[in-house]
Amino acid sequence: MKGQLYAIGNGLKQQLCQISDFMFHNPEIGNKEYKATEKLVTFLRENNFVVKQPVLNMDTAFEAVYDSGKPGASVAFICEYDALPEIGHACGHNMIGAMSAGAGVILSKIIDELGGKVHVFGTPAEETNGGKVTMADAGLFNNITAALMIHPSDDTRESGTSAAMEALQFRYKGLTAHAAGCPEKGINALNAVIQLFNGIDALRQHVTPDVRIHGIISEGGVAANIVPELAVAQFYIRSATKENLADVKEKVLKIAEGAALMTGAALDVTNYELSYDDLKTNMALSDAYNKNLEALGITDIKPPIKGAGSSDIGNVSNIIPTIHPYIGISETRIIGHTREFAAATITDFAHDRLVTGALALAYTGLDILTGKVPLQNK
């Protein structure tokens, strides 16, 4: 059957590359991916998928299903399609969307013989307020057998880990006064934010090496001769596991409270984006995918790197067996989140890898449907 899938996938190459290139030329940031969603949904509907859109009040989220009408596994391919501000598809989500939708369509062409379902989930805003978090919390993945996606990179790597992440906003409210005439009458909210940064810097030597804490001051006053009444800082806090992240978060919150006490400012802490869980790769699923990729001619598969970055696919992986491997799209070194990376996604080399990736996903989906992957093995 994999021979059938190979022929189907290669027959779709031109269309899949056109979808990816269209998204490259029409980049849209998270939760505004209207053109990308329309392109993917149209492709899936043309191939007899039943599409639900929007999903959970997210306009650019969708769930597409091809149901064989027979009992069997439910295989999910995960699409991403949000771009970055100003630099476009510098993380290659145009390719992710095309690969996952392509894999779903390829597998759907033979599933009637086997039984089961193919799902393609459209998940907006991975770079910011991850749609997969909302979907996972609502239970959309609970009845799925396994979830698969591939991320473009400069190297081909096995699925590994990503860090758990909290996005915290610290809002300090003080009191204005003339900064020269009567500064003693004011409460300096910016001083509170500065103490927050100093406290976090002191914390860094007392956390595990996997922890990353990085932030910005988004508001810090309006004029030098006015004691700042309002100051706001936004931080990402990351750790290898969500359990350790919870401990680090508590320490940061105590520092924030201390900064408020030191300055007299009032403190309000909120999540300005949704929290991401750490990625837990299912090793049986990963092994099956790696073998399929090798069978398609990509044999230089590097070991995974322990990821310091974060992705909402982690929330899916904490519910069902999941993989998130990387596929090389360039013959030279390129760095993610750059214009050079974005440009690499529409080269002939990347087009070839796009189809190979879609086929490797479809092959692995076939292995799941035929019971060849012992998913209970983590």
Can you walk me through this structure?
The chain is of the alpha/beta class and 378 residues long. The protein has two domains: 2-162 and 277-369, Aminopeptidase (3-Layer(aba) Sandwich); 164-271, Alpha-Beta Plaits (2-Layer Sandwich). The protein is 39% helix and 17% strand. The chain is built from eleven helices and twelve strands. The strands form three sheets. It has a six-stranded mixed β-sheet with strand order 1-2-4-3-5-11. Strands 8-9-7-10 form a four-stranded antiparallel β-sheet, covered by helices on one side. Strands 6-12 form a two-stranded parallel sheet. β3, α4 (93-114) and β4 (117-122) form a beta-alpha-beta unit. α1 (2-11) runs antiparallel to α11 (348-369). The chain starts with a helix and ends in a 9-residue tail after the last helix. The mean pLDDT is 97.
What is the subunit organization of this protein? single chain
The total tally of domains equals: 2
Task: Provide the gyration radius in Å.
Answer: 23 Å
Q: Could you say which structural class the secondary elements and strand pairing correspond to? A: alpha/beta
Number of E-state strands:
12
The CATH class assignment of the largest domain is: Alpha Beta
Our measurement of the CA-to-CA distance between the termini, rounded to an integer number of angstroms, reads 27 Å
Largest sheet: 6 strands, mixed
| Net shape | elongated
Q: Are there runs of 5+ residues with pLDDT below 50, and where? A: none
Topology as a string of helices (H) and strands (E): HHHEEEHEHEEEHEEHEHHEEHH
How many helices? The count is: 11
Query: Could you please say which CATH topology of the largest domain applies here?
Result: Aminopeptidase
Arithmetic mean of pLDDT: 97
The share of residues in helices is: 25-40%
Tell me the strand order in the biggest sheet. Answer: 1-2-4-3-5-11
β-strand percent reads 15-25%
The name of the CATH superfamily of the largest domain reads: Zn peptidases
Query: What is the CATH architecture term of the largest domain?
Result: 3-Layer(aba) Sandwich
